[in-house]
Amino acid sequence: MTNWKHIDQNAKRWIAEAGEKIRNSFDSALSIQYKSNPNDLVTNMDKEIEQFFIEKIQETYPDHRILGEEGYGDDVTSLDGVLWIIDPIDGTMNFVHQQRNFAISIGIYGDGIGYIGLIYDVVHNELYHAFKGEGAYMNDIPLPKLDKVNIEEAVVGINPVWVTENKRIDYNLIAPIVQKVRGARSYGSAALECAYVASGRLDAYLTMRLAPWDFAAGLVLIEEVGGVATTLKGEKLDLLSKTSFFVGEKNLHDHIIKEYLNR
Ligand code: IPD
Ligand code: CA
Ligand code: CA
Ligand code: CA
């Protein structure tokens, strides 16, 4: 039987160690490369941190599998068994340009069910943590269930690019949401934006395209505070492919899907 508490303790310990490595790296020069285009950055630290987790996991749990953004893990095509879904640095652009507003994100799943979600804001030393059935926490502070929010009072996370002409969605669907809500914010780290929804700093976050490592940990947190996460059409999320993504307090989420996105 899988000892999830044991896994949880190790994951927390390793994430703290990885955070320390990242903070220490601020004194050294970064090596920055481009991936798919000149705005898609990756650094030596993204790679080193992913490799650090993989070494620890493989040494301790040789039968677990790992899906990591930088590709050092396994070639994962099913959700069978224990699966670690890792984004070593979510918000690499912020990491490079701001040295803040980025996070380490780890979701740990058993046969497709989320058991552990960890999102670590390394610079602010804020660990968002959830364990299936036992609630969500920021450091040691329990996060309450989300209260009902009306759209007029909502603060919503969205990248401004989606309210300009783009290849993923008709911005005429999105602009009215931005006009109606109390405020729109863009933090540049999907994992942190999920953690902010879970902790009530945002009421919703929506985007046209994320990978599983961007939201795997966030899903576990959201579940524990009674929020909802789906595609922009309200469908179930697929942990093995890129997808649109919409997370929020339940009433607000349902309202936006019905009145704005499924028009
Ligand atoms: C990115 C961030 C960003 C989101 C992108 C992601 P990365 O992750 O989460 O906020 O808009 O879609 O790819 O590349 O910095 O790990
Ligand atoms: Ca990336
Ligand atoms: Ca990411
Ligand atoms: Ca990343």
Q: How does this model look, in words?
A:
- The chain has 263 residues and is α+β, with helices and mostly antiparallel strands.
- It has 2 domains: 4-142, Fructose-1,6-Bisphosphatase, Chain A, domain 1 (2-Layer Sandwich); 151-261, 3-Layer(aba) Sandwich (D-Maltodextrin-Binding Protein, domain 2), CATH 3.40.190.80.
- 34% of the residues lie in helices and 26% in strands.
- It contains 7 helices and 14 strands.
- The chain has helices at residues 4-25, 44-60, 92-97, 171-180, 190-198, 212-224, 250-261, and strands spanning 32-34, 41-43, 65-68, 82-90, 103-110, 113-121, 126-131, 136-138, 141-142, 155-157, 183-185, 204-210, 228-230, 243-248.
- A 7-stranded mixed sheet has the order 3-4-5-6-7-8-9, with helices on both faces.
- A hairpin with a 2-residue loop joins strand 5 (103-110) and strand 6.
- Helix 1 runs antiparallel to helix 2 and helix 5 (190-198) runs parallel beside helix 6.
- The radius of gyration is 18 Å and the shape is globular.
- The termini are far apart.
- Its EC number is 3.1.3.25.
- Keywords: Hydrolase, Magnesium, Metal-binding.
- It catalyses: a myo-inositol phosphate + H2O = myo-inositol + phosphate.
- It holds the Pfam family Inositol_P.
- It is an enzyme of class 3 (hydrolase).
